[in-house]
Amino acid sequence: MDAEVAHEDGLTVVVTRNDERSRFEGHVGDELVGVIDFSVRGQLMIITHTGTEPAWRGRGIAARLTTAALHDARAQGRSVNPVCPYTGHFIAQHREYADLLEQT
Question: Does pTM surpass 0.85?
């Protein structure tokens, strides 16, 4: 999974899923600017952490990573458990992803 996510500010973030490290990585050029850590149990993706490098905060990196991770979960037919508070808040604010939430 590779996705280029452009933004109205012209910044392009390339998001890749790194299965070896169980995370999604966001790069601007060669620089790692943010990550989302996750684990998978069957058809459940558990998102445990979202982080953006301090110099890149406030530019929508976390939102772009989260969007890519949620699109990937949907494409894989997985539900999501947002242990990460950022991801939980993101889904609450973007109800189009509510169908991905793990049903308990």
Answer: yes
Structural domain boundaries of the chain? 2-100
Compute and round to an integer the Cα radius of gyration of the chain: 13
Strand partners, 35: 25, 51
Assigned architecture for domain 2-100? 3-Layer(aba) Sandwich (3.40)
Would you say residue 43 has pLDDT above 60? Answer: yes
Question: Looking at 1-104, which runs of residues are DSSP E strands?
Answer: 2-6, 12-18, 23-28, 31-41, 44-52, 79-82
Condensed to tens digits (0 to 9), the pLDDT of residues 21-41 reads 999 999 999 999 999 999 999
The torsion angles phi and psi of 66, rounded to 5 degrees, stand at -65, -45
CB 49 within 8 A of CB 39: no
The set of residues, in sequence order, having a beta carbon less than 8 Å from that of 23 and lying 6+ positions away, is 17, 35, 36, 37, 38
